[in-house]
Amino acid sequence: MSLFLKTKDFSVSGEEFELHHDQDLDMLVTKPQPESLDLYYESEDYISHTDAQNTFTDRLYQFVKRRNLQNKIQVVDNQVNKPINLLDIGAGTGDFVLTAKKHGFEAFGVEPNNKARELALKKGVGLSAKIEEINTNSFQVITLWHVLEHLPDLEKDIKTLVGLLEEDGVMVIAVPNFKSYDANHYGSFWAGYDVPRHLWHFSKTAIAKIFAAHQMEVVKIRPMLFDAFYVSMLSEKYKGNKLYLIKAFFIGLWSNLSAFFTKEHSSLIYILKKKK
After folding, report:
1. pLDDT tens digits for range 153-187
2. Which of 132, 214, 236, 245 has the fewest other C-beta atoms within 10 Å?
3. 110: in domain
4. In whole angstroms, how far apart are CA 184 and each of 110, 137, 236, 238?
5. Any one Gene Ontology biological process term (predicted)?
6. With contact defined as beta carbons under 8 Å apart, do 177 and 225 qualify?
7. What is the CATH number of the domain that holds 9?
């Protein structure tokens, strides 16, 4: 592997990290990968584990999250004839599980962060801390919304999840795309890297190759259009730009426009099924 770039944890610790390029898989790997990774999530600034609306950025995140919930459930609904059961990995504060339940799924969620699980419980959503705590042993749909990049033992966790998927089941995975225009534009300031919480940084080639080793194939790829704007906004803030909203809007817009030709959006949703 070769050094791709140096960056730092802009949101929590300020520590520096390196991204190394795996040429065979065409993916980036965060180095070093901290042993006590949980410490980098124990912050009020890590909004995925809170329902905070203290700042404009917080409120914008919650707005985008609400809009994305409907888009996410539509993606899932389009893959199945009749909702049966669903497992959401990295369920955060439980909003997607709650939305899936409202749309007729028997939905389960796994979230290792205790604070996030407590917030989910206040919404009436009970989440498990580990996959092993789930009683159901097969699922029609398994979702990972910006979670795959967080998994410390990538190959082992993928093998476990594939084993839980029904033969005709669907796995839906959303991840940032380091091949996007905004990633290239912002370089080490790109918020999609989010080191060290993001341990892996995927391309289309990487997703296809990694899951092919588990007898899974990508059957469809969908963009997450809102991500280009939100990630650009955070990236501009990391750069210290006081007019971050204006600049982020134009960079996000151009990223989405250019992706209509390159197909390399800021974040991508992969629909995967088991090979026949």
Report:
1. 999 999 999 999 999 999 999 999 999 999 999 99
2. 132
3. yes
4. 33, 41, 14, 15
5. methylation
6. no
7. 3.40.50.150
